[in-house]
Amino acid sequence: MFEPKSVDTKSIKVGMLVRNLEGERLGQVVAREGPIFRVQRPDIANAERYVVEDADVASIRGAEIVLRQGPATMVLEREYERRQAAGVPLRVTAEGWRKAGGLEETVDAELLPGMVVADVEGRPIGTLYAIGDDAFDLRCADTGELATVQLGDVLNVLPKQVVVRNGRGVMRNRRQEPTAAEEPLI
Fold first, then answer.
1. Residues 131-171: pLDDT tens digits?
2. How many CB atoms within 10 Å of residue 173?
3. Are strands 116-118 and 75-76 parallel, antiparallel or unpaired?
4. Domain residue ranges of the chain, discontinuous segments joined by +
5. CB 117 within 8 A of CB 162
6. What is the pLDDT of residues 41-57, one digit of tens each?
7. CA of 69: how far to CAs of 65, 128, 134, 149, in Å?
8. pTM, whole model, 2 decimals?
């Protein structure tokens, strides 16, 4: 199994900024507790607080913490507390937190045409079009083209959404859908 390179997280302090890999600001550290820290948006009154595990830190640059997968690695504080009280392990996959509705075991849903395909930040990149043995085709959200995604690039399959790593970077073989005149005759 792939284990990400560890980052020395001893320097994480209250007040540090938290960003995703693209540099977008996600919040500010408001508490530090052992192998976790709590994050809150400082510009919103009564903003929800989130918990982030040290293992989800990609790098620390001065007073900024960069997360491996942005908001996908942040868990609502109340969900964290609920799972802690129930003795449920929080980290289920090496890629980050797996969002589950309850305390039952999380299992990948079945891939089905029409499912939304999104990056780890939750931004839609397309809609699942057709499924093959080791890849699937999706219709791109921005252009309507078809593209191929390898199943190895899938992180999670949720009930109505497929989450892929590296966003649009996983799309291969972008092409226009063949018209009836271009399809081969059998």
1. 888 889 999 988 889 999 988 888 778 778 888 877 777 88
2. 11
3. unpaired
4. 17-86, 116-175
5. yes
6. 877 777 889 999 888 89
7. 12, 22, 24, 19
8. 0.48
